[in-house]
Amino acid sequence: MAPMIGIIANPVSARDIRRVVANATNLQVTDRANIVLRVLAALRSCGVTDVLMMPENGGIRGHVERGLVRAKAHGEPHYPRLHLLSIPVTGTVEDTHRAAAEMRKAGVAAIVVLGGDGTHRAVVSRCGKVPVAGISTGTNNAFPEHREPTITGLATGLAVTGQVPAHIAFSPNKRIDVQVNGSRTPEVALVDVALVTEGFIGARALWRPDSFRELFVTFADPEVIGMSAIAGLLEPVSRAESGGLMVRMVPPDGQGPRAPVTTLNAPIAPGLMVDVGICDWRRMPPGMPFVPETKAGSIALDGEREISFTARDHVSLTLRDDAFRTVNVRGCMHYAAQHKLFAAAPSAVPASAAKYQLQ
Amino acid sequence: MLDNPFPLNKTDLLKAYRTMRTIREFEERLHVDFAKGDIPGFVHLYAGEEACATGIMMHLNDNDRIASTHRGHGHCIAKGVDVHEMMAEIYGRATGACRGKGGSMHIADLSKGMMGANGILGAGGPLACGAALAAKHRKDGGVGITFVGDGASNQGMFLESLNLAAVWNLPVVFVVENNGYAEATAMEWAVSCDSYIDRATGFGLPGVTVDGTDFFAVHEAAGEIIRRAREGGGPALLECKMARFYGHFEGDAQTYRAKGEIEDLRANRDCIKLMAARLKEAGLAAQEELDVIDQEVAALIEDAVRAAKAAPLPQPADLLQDVYVAY
Q1: Which residue of A259, B73, B87, B146 lies most exposed, with the fewest beta carbons within 10 A?
Q2: Are strands B172-178 and A212-217 parallel, antiparallel or unpaired?
């Protein structure tokens, strides 16, 4: 029997203030539903027959079910069977937490996630060793790679059906655990943890560089946007190498606790380039708890303020190598090409090759 | 900065707290007095939703105009309408904001930029667009704000207003107060595409969703949206996810709500409790300071009810007064 795949599609990602303070996009519900249909078609073509989906009341399910009914009426066997998890819908991140945990219990072979960095973080915090295939439908999307979802669906299908060897099909990823007052269940960040002086969660996003103080990243890629772009433009660290980077920041105008050694103009949100005062940066080795210098403010996980803290709270951050797995889409698709996995006759050679051989 | 991690100083934070407490106390009192049969007409209570009106209105001045809904008491109080005049209006007394002839769903005070609560669902959209058009022509930096519930957002008038605002690039903000129910119908049964943000996007407006029970979230997002409108950036939509503590109207049996839902909202999503906890945690206000505000607010509401009950009723001869405005 073919393995089952989970799909968690967040209907409410990409709705925050960055639509106003920057010019971030809004992916509409119908587009999100169409992405799910594309992923389903891709999974079916790789032999996946059953998919378990998170229920939501945001409109995605209705559009997907309509698409499936229409396909059936046309006699098109394009899609796997769709099963809905039996969990209550609250319209909050709790749905994603519960769905990831239930899918893990149900033994899915992978979870396809539609959302931004926040949705992916919520899934990873509950899915354990189940690999994740990320599709970006959020605002910053430093974590999920930007790619046509059909390809992500194909790679996931190839990976879970064993058509691509596991050591190629899946990649290890890093994570930062954040503990406040020694909390038993740490909060996690997949890309970055930023400490800012604003002591309230408010509209969550970060766009005022005067408040930025410390940044810890699992990888620093100059090709992505968001807080990790600051680290990426200082000293790139790949997703594959061990450890991350930490950066200390001050107001760029020199009015902060110390003077910046340089000022960096960084894309911290879509279309939003700001000057960030930098006073120090260094590598962040794995497994070592870091206690931030910032005494009060809030902690932003993957670009969104989540926890406010005061001088009475003890905060520590630890980077973990090999913390969870993702589907290696690039690896899977190149393997598929090399081994002609999508060809009816994998050993066929081009007619032109035969012609050249004759010459 | 570290001493006050909030975007407002202590005076303004306590002012916001006082406004939210005033709305709550006002509504809780109406809940009791309506059940006793003291109040004519219908009332729709705003209890639980105070952070939305307060967080938005703190960015407005008397020249900015708002168009409210049938659930308008909170908007009125946050916009600065006199509480005594409001109470008298709801009690149908001649000393009321509209001489006692409008009642709960028609409280207006143009001197405060409050264009009126409104019993017609979705009708605030065109009014706010009109106010915004006037501000745009006067070039006075004013904005128009309309509030609309999740149910009324299905009305044609509201959708036409989104279009008009975009076409004329008006300094107007559409606030969808999403408390999850259109009267008794849960939004997922009645709102196509299930996203107000998508609707705004369809007309070319940016849309933002915030937790409407978090004063700081509403205040911060509204501040950016209103500033953008004042600067000529055009209209936008703000969806606030709210918690309605009472029924659609007073007397609503609320059979459509899950068991324990209201208790859960009051325990975990009470915007006033959440704000008070945050102020105390940050060391910006002691419980004693908040208690003093609570007592002053209770006295204010008590006095407003006493004065309303003692005030005269409008007379038949007053019926045709104030119907038309002379230019």
Answers
A1: A259
A2: unpaired
Tokens 């945050």 belong to which residue?
B278
All structural domains of chain A, each given as residue ranges with its CATH number in brackets, are: 5-163 (3.40.50), 174-321 (2.60.200)
d(CA B200, CA B251): 34
Cβ-based burial of A233 (10 A; exposed 0-12, middle 13-18, buried ≥19): middle
- What b/e sequence results for A180-213 when a residue is b if at least 16 CB atoms lie within 10 Å of its CB, and e otherwise? eeeeeebbbbbbbbbbbbbbbbbbbbbbebbbbb
Contacts of B188 in chain A (CB under 8 A): 57
Nearest CB to A295 within list B2, B197, B283: B2
Tokens of B59: 């960015």
Interface of A with B (CB under 8 A): 11-12, 15-17, 19-21, 26, 28-30, 57-59, 91, 197-204, 211, 295-298, 308, 310
Closest CA to A297 of A214, A227, A196: A196
Q: Which of A170, A110, A178 is nearest to A326 (CA)?
A: A170
Ordered per-residue pLDDT tens for chain B, 327 residues = 346 788 899 999 999 999 999 999 999 999 999 999 999 989 999 999 999 999 999 999 999 999 999 999 999 999 999 999 999 999 999 999 999 999 999 999 999 999 999 999 999 999 999 999 999 999 999 999 999 999 999 999 999 999 999 999 999 999 999 998 999 998 888 887 777 888 999 999 999 999 999 999 999 999 999 999 999 999 999 999 999 999 999 989 999 999 999 999 999 999 999 999 999 988 889 999 999 999 999 999 999 999 999 999 999 999 888 888 777
Q: Which residues contact A219 (CB under 8 A, 6 or more apart)?
A: A174, A191, A228, A237, A238, A239, A244
Contact A192, A126 (CB under 8 A): no
Q: Find the closest chain A residue to B189 by CA distance.
A: A57
Q: Measured between CB atoms, which of A12, A203, A211 is closest to B217?
A: A203
Query: Which residue, among A217, A53, A241, has the nearest Cα to A143 in the 3D structure?
Result: A217
Task: Please answer whether residues A170 and A232 qualify as being in contact, where contact means their C-beta atoms are separated by less than 8 angstroms.
Answer: no
Cβ-contact B218, B52 below 8 angstroms: yes
* Rg, chain A, Cα only: 22
- Beta-carbon separation of B239 and A15 below 8 A: yes
Chain A environment of B220 (Cβ under 8 Å):
17, 200, 202-203
- Tell me whether residues A26 and B216 touch, CB distance under 8 A: no
Amino acid present at A173: N
Residues in chain A within 8 Å Cβ distance of B193: 28-30, 59
Q: Report the alpha-carbon distance of residue B68 to residue B127 in Å, rounded.
A: 10
What domains are there in chain B, each with its CATH number? 10-312 (3.40.50.970)
Inter-chain CB proximity B194 and A29 less than 8 Å = yes
Any residues with CB less than 8 A from the CB of B183 and at least 6 apart, and which? B151, B248
Distance CA A78, CA A2 (A): 16
